[in-house]
Amino acid sequence: MNIVDNAAFFVVSVPVSALKNVDDDGDGKLTAQEIQKHDQSIKQQFADRFTVSNGGQAGTSVLSWVMAPDGSDAQMEVDYIVILHRANFPETPENLVLTTDLFGTGPDEQQMTVKATLDGVSEVAILRPDVTAHQFFRGGWAIFLDYIRIGGEHILTGADHLLFLLTIIIAGAGWRYWVSVVTSFTIAHSITLTVSAQDIFRISPDIVEPAIAASIVLMALLNLSYWHKNDATIGWTRIGVIFVCGLIHGFGFGSAIGAMTSDTGNLVATLAGFNIGIELGQFFFLGAVLLLVGVFHRFGNMRIADRVPKFASATAIILGFILLIQRIVLI
């Protein structure tokens, strides 16, 4: 979204699966003929489901143009279309609210990243089926709070990061151990998250994602090969390994937030909020795990309770290997 004077210009990618009654053969893709045939229907659905307003006043649509993605020819079938759209306002829309539910059914079609630019300052918003609206240009404090939520959601919905946290938490007991390993992981991923998000140094997700899966396997193997039952002793070797793994996970976080920090005028608020959200999510997960372990020890069979950490590590090895193979195959 680019705001110029009193007009908002949009370039929107819309998944075919988000549209109704336009895919005649039901194959999940559109041909040039289908796009042309259903041009008016697509425009109407877009007008009904993609709305922008400023101060409660809806913008006036003056242009919507439906087209296939760049580089596709007349014979090519596409799984998304591009809509060029313009909305006019009585004055420059400085508090613009965007609302949409144009999300597809595929797993990679459940999120819309919107970059808005006004007077050379950019802001990036993430919309999903459960977050369908965003108000732009509210200032750094509002962005900070938004990214605390986004960071927390990212860590708590990231099975790979949670699985790694589990492998380091269950390897020892005592607050000194837990604080040390979580702090090591936090410092490490904060460093690479920051340098990656600011595009100072990045590593391709094709390398980072398999490496994250490999880190889960590595930590779980270390747990099984060198186990200190109920030992609060902190091994510097383990702390070092966790730190290196944290650097790798930070590049994964950086990939997730990369588009959000591009050309933004609130970079500090974005990075700080996202990082704090991740830390809050980590401590929430840590608290939940420790609570379950405590309940199990208090009310469960002690022999079984003592075996839970080893069982969890063995399970992490299996799940980590599955993730590793999947990510190598998908590259």
Provide a descriptive summary of the structure in words.
52% of the residues lie in helices and 18% in strands. It contains nine helices and ten strands. Helix 5 packs parallel to helix 7 (236-257), helix 5 (175-197) packs antiparallel against helix 8 (267-299) and helix 6 (205-225) runs antiparallel to helix 7 (236-257). The chain is elongated and about 70 Å long. It starts with a strand and ends with a helix.
Keywords:
9 helices; 331 residues; alpha+beta; 6-stranded mixed sheet; elongated; 4-stranded antiparallel sheet; single chain
Spatial shape: elongated
Portion of residues in beta strands equals 15-25%
- State the low-pLDDT regions, or none: 229-233
What is the count of β-strands? 10
Can you count the helices? 9
Short characterization:
52% of the residues lie in helices and 18% in strands. The chain is of the alpha+beta class and 331 residues long.
List the helices and strands and how they pair.
Elements: E1 2-4, E2 7-15, H1 32-37, H2 39-49, E3 50-54, E4 57-58, E5 60-67, E6 80-88, E7 96-100, E8 112-118, E9 121-127, E10 133-135, H3 140-156, H4 159-169, H5 175-197, H6 205-225, H7 236-257, H8 267-299, H9 302-330
Helix pairs in contact: 3-8, 4-6, 4-8, 4-9, 5-7, 5-8, 6-7, 6-9
